[in-house]
Amino acid sequence: MALLTTGKGFIRDLEKSGALGIFTPLEGGSEGRYQRRLRLNGYDSFSLTAKGLGDIEAYLTKVHGVSVPHLGKKNIGQEAAVGPIYFVPPVATYKLDNLSPKSKGLILWIIEGHVLSRDELEYLTNLPHQEPRIKVVVELGGERYFRWESLEKIAQAV
């Protein structure tokens, strides 16, 4: 890998396909350089982990209910059996609504993507087609050098 990389090929492929799966060196650092290149090219970036996401579609694009953790206190007959439910706005839609006018779009950078199922990867592949201002990058595993591939190809292979 070159010591200094421009990231032009990565950005071009991301804009073309909309969703990429990446494999990064395990010692880290290279993904930060590519995130910086995306920000310099006019994109806003939002990082999140794939572990514990639940329903990805609801989390990213729909208002959804969240139950707070049980802390030992019980409300007998006052609320739902799971406790109080709070409704939170969708993450991606909220970020899109608050983008600066000069921004090209939103990059969803998802780490620990190896836990995602085939259906979830297919949804992430189709998300940029539903909302063209969203691009998706999923970290899927380790490699000796930074490499990327279309998420569509990866989802078909899983």
Walkthrough of the structure:
The chain has helices at 8-17, 30-40, 56-61, 91-97, 118-130, 151-157, and strands at 19-24, 43-49, 64-67, 85-88, 105-111, 134-142, 147-150. It is an alpha/beta fold and 158 residues long. It has a domain at 8-55 and 101-157: 3-Layer(aba) Sandwich (Rossmann fold), CATH 3.40.50. The strands form 2 sheets. It has a 5-stranded mixed beta sheet with strand order 2-5-6-1-7, with helices on both faces. Helix 5 (118-130) links the parallel strand 5 (105-111) and strand 6 (134-142). The radius of gyration is 18 Å and the shape is globular. The model has no long low-confidence stretch (mean pLDDT 88). It catalyses: a plastoquinone + NADPH + (n+1) H(+)(in) = a plastoquinol + NADP(+) + n H(+)(out); a plastoquinone + NADH + (n+1) H(+)(in) = a plastoquinol + NAD(+) + n H(+)(out).
Largest sheet, strands/sense/barrel? 5 strands, mixed
Structural class: alpha/beta
Q: Supply the CATH class of the domain at 8-55 and 101-157.
A: Alpha Beta
Physical arrangement of strands within the biggest beta sheet? 2-5-6-1-7
Per DSSP, what share of the residues sits in E-state strands of 2 or more residues?
Answer: 25-35%
Along the chain, the helix and strand elements come as HEHEHEEHEHEEH
Q: What would CATH call the homologous superfamily of the domain at 8-55 and 101-157?
A: P-loop containing nucleotide triphosphate hydrolases
Number of strands: 7
Q: For the terminal residues, how far apart are their CA atoms?
A: 27 Å
**Per the principal axes of the C-alpha atoms, what is the gross shape?**
globular
Radius of gyration: 18 Å
Secondary structure: helix percent? 25-40%
CATH architecture identity of the domain at 8-55 and 101-157:
3-Layer(aba) Sandwich
